[in-house]
Amino acid sequence: MIRTEVAVVGGGPAGLMASLAAAKMGANVTIIDRNSRLGGQLVKQTHMFFGSEKQYASIRGVDIGKFLASEVERNPKIKTMLDSTVVAYYPDDGVLGVEVEEKKWVKMKADRIIIATGASERFLPFENNDLPGIYGAGAVQTLMNEHGVLPGKNVLMVGAGNIGLIVSYQLMQAGVNVKAIIDAAPRIGGYWVHASKVARLGIPILTSYTVKAAYPNEMTGALERAVIWKVDDKWQPVPGTEKVFNVDVMCIAVGLSPLAELLWQAGCQMVYVPELGGHVPLRNENMETTVPGIFVAGDVAGVEEASSAMMEGELAGLSAAKSLGYDDGTYEDKKNAVLRELDTLRSGPVGEKIRKGLSRVII
């Protein structure tokens, strides 16, 4: 049995900030991540962040990840468990079950738990959607930005949210031809600054279109051709509107779903909120769920940008440490500063969807 004051499940932007915030308040922290290094999705994000200096504006995601990971590794109050997966929560005694390096099973008893497990990519149902050459956007980023491997020569990007737009730009920078970006929605879902960058490169963005089918090369069995068609205002396909693209890669970037399995196991009260990506936990303004002692942060609490995930992580870390009695008199000031940062990130028309979703989960 491993014991710790604060267990942080997930070493991405939310988990890193939560660990640092709790440790700086004085708590002993153990951060658990299934990967071989800390950083989560930050390790593959080569674009520069927006926001304020506190939100690491004008710094590339990969560099933010390196900086936060080094801060965690230098902090004597934080223990790191890599290549370790939390696969169970035992509600009777509040113990986590952890598989370590696929070799052994340990149990961890924590006074407070922060769940920062992030989200998984969604996929699309269409004919032959399992052909070689059809990737999620995260896989394409991993190939290019982590391993320096091009996924192919000609790409159809499915999804005009921020991820689809950013990855399209990265593909073009790497010399890959993005034939088009399509999205079933009638409007682009990502920031205009990202859309403008790909538009200047000549990439057509086709809204109200979805994938009808994919077809393989007869010799290799890999993707050779993609067919799309228009959808009406009821999201139904319109026959006769088909367009054909000769591509060897289709990149699917149609959103994320919170990885909330541990929250279900723990008995947290969950609610389905489409604006936040799916089932998310009810929580108070301190990021504490309906199960006392369990906090959430990042995409598992509602899919947003990495900047918001970091701020939520800091808030959860501060609150978890405070609930254990750690407070040098700065807690309220730090908490209010984070809440102001979050309000700024969620302000304006861009944050309207997030604000609507959050109104249903804050208790």
From TrEMBL:
Domain FAD/NAD(P)-binding: 5-313
GO molecular function list: sarcosine oxidase activity
EC number(s) per entry: 1.5.3.1
Transmembrane segments: none
UniProt keyword list: Oxidoreductase
InterPro entries associated with the record: FAD/NAD-bd_sf, FAD/NAD-binding_dom, Metab_Enz_Cyan_OpOx_G3PDH
Positions in coiled-coil regions: none
Pfam families tied to this protein: Pyr_redox_2
Protein name from the UniProt record: Sarcosine oxidase subunit alpha
